[in-house]
Task: inverse folding
């Protein structure tokens, strides 16, 4: 088979759509360089998930992939196996490719989020609002369950599991949920003056505002939190932690 693995030339990559910005490519290039590893990490920019299997089949020495927007859920039917946690979450951001070319899916976003939030938690951090209902929000919800933090989804539309529309939110709801997590792309560069439409007046110094966005490093959402002296956390640590977890998965025998 074409994708038999020669250890000295292992390849890794990121699967997504319009991903020229890719944090992961730069991160792993830097890692391979500083650790003197003879590996490569490339972007696999595809227009449809149907393009993925032929690419995997014809790429020699491919060992692992990260998956990003918009394929974290769409990739699941393409895989041979799913890790238990990824199955519960319902989204995959890491694929391990065996020597025989079999694909197993994992989710490391949950790990990155959990361990970047945990050091900031205090006793009063019992209830959270998750803004957005995409793939990333599922990993966040799973991590909050693990941390025994109650949460509600906030969405633009009424759907199963959604407690609040943005128009339902008021200062009381905001002030009684001490963790607010932006799992939408609103505020990402270049749209840096945009932020989720929530009543920031309800934010206090007892709040944590966590934005999964890392570019810009301080989004408008986070700067609104800073104005109220809330603890603010951007998505950079989460990204680094999920990348390192993926790396450990690819290298586990
Ligand atoms: N730091 C990290 O490690 C990390 C990891 C994963 C993702 N991320 C970031 O997290 C964000 C979400 O990722 P994702 O994969 O879940 O993305 P996604 O599926 O494209 O979008 C997430 C959700 O955001 C809401 N949304 C989308 N566009 C919106 C708009 N214009 N206005 C209001 N709400 C909108 C939607 O929820 P509703 O339809 O319910 O409103 C959507 O389901 C992205 O910015 C991504 O880069 C960061």
Result:
């Amino acid at each position: 088979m074409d994708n038999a693995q020669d250890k000295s030339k292992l390849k890794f990559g990121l699967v997504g759509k319009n991903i020229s910005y890719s944090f992961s490519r730069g991160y792993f290039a830097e890692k391979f360089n500083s650790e003197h590893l003879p590996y490569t990490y490339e972007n696999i920019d595809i227009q449809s998930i149907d393009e993925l299997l032929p690419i995997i089949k014809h790429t020699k020495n491919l060992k692992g992939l990260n998956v990003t927007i918009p394929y974290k859920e769409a990739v699941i039917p393409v895989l041979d196996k799913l890790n238990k946690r990824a199955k519960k979450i319902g989204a995959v951001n890491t694929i391990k490719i065996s020597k025989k070319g079999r694909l197993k899916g994992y989710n490391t976003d949950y790990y990155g989020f959990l361990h970047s939030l945990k050091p900031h938690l205090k006793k009063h951090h019992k209830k959270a609002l998750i803004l957005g209902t995409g793939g990333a929000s599922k990993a966040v919800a799973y991590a909050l369950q693990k941390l025994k933090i109650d949460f509600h989804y906030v969405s633009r539309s009424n759907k199963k599991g959604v407690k609040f529309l943005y128009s339902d939110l008021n200062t009381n709801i905001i002030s009684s949920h001490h963790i607010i997590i932006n799992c939408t792309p609103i505020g990402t560069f270049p749209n840096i003056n945009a932020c989720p439409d929530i009543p920031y007046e309800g934010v206090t110094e007892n709040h944590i505002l966590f934005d999964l966005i890392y570019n810009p490093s301080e989004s408008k959402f986070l700067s609104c939190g800073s104005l109220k002296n809330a603890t603010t956390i951007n998505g950079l640590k989460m990204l680094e932690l999920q990348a390192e977890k993926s790396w450990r998965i690819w290298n586990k025998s």
